[in-house]
Write a structure and sequence with these properties.
4-stranded antiparallel β-sheet, alpha+beta, about 180 residues, 8 strands
């Protein structure tokens, strides 16, 4: 009798894992390029924010911040159809950040709203009115990290810095 209970428990656990994995794959499927805006929002839900794109389209933010490490952006063309849908918090995308030419609007359209906004530390090499936007993400898909983007008072990027995430990185536990 105990062998029957053990087999039933194993089968139930296997089914539960299979159902959980299939549910995850359902939610992670991105709409195909060319999908109309109404169908994109029907599938993905209401975005956390919508940013105008200089090309006449718009960018929809599907927020994973402040504690998540992903952020998805759906780019909609001027024709009202999906151009792309991607998880944007990656080293490759952060490498595109250009100092002295990117603005807060550019950063919002590219990465969405940050996990944290704070003034730059007065002891650093930045002006007193500098502001820091920090994004929590997985560095190389593995390490718990923060990408910090420093802006001057005009909202232009001054500097970027990648550091371990002080909340999620185990090296900071107990401090």
């Amino acid at each position: 009798m105990s062998k029957l209970i053990k087999n039933t428990t194993t089968i139930a656990a296997t089914l539960a894992v299979a159902l959980a994995l299939s549910a995850c794959s359902t939610f992670s499927k991105a709409p195909a390029a060319g999908t109309p805006l109404a169908d994109v929002t029907a599938k993905l839900g209401k975005p956390a924010a919508v940013y105008p794109d200089p090309d006449g389209g718009q960018v929809l933010e599907y927020r994973g911040q402040p504690m998540g490490q992903v952020q998805h952006m759906a780019r909609i063309g001027a024709d009202g159809r999906l151009i792309s849908y991607e998880q944007v918090l990656t080293n490759e995308n952060f490498a595109k950040l250009g100092t002295k030419r990117w603005t807060k609007d550019d950063v919002l359209r590219s990465f969405g709203h940050p996990a944290d906004i704070s003034p730059a530390r007065a002891t650093g090499p930045f002006p007193d009115d500098a502001e820091v936007w920090s994004y929590r993400y997985k560095d190389d898909g593995v390490w718990n990290a923060m990408m910090s983007v420093y802006f001057n008072a005009r909202g232009v990027v001054l500097h970027t810095a990648k550091t371990p995430d002080p909340i999620l990185d185990d090296r900071y536990k107990g401090f």
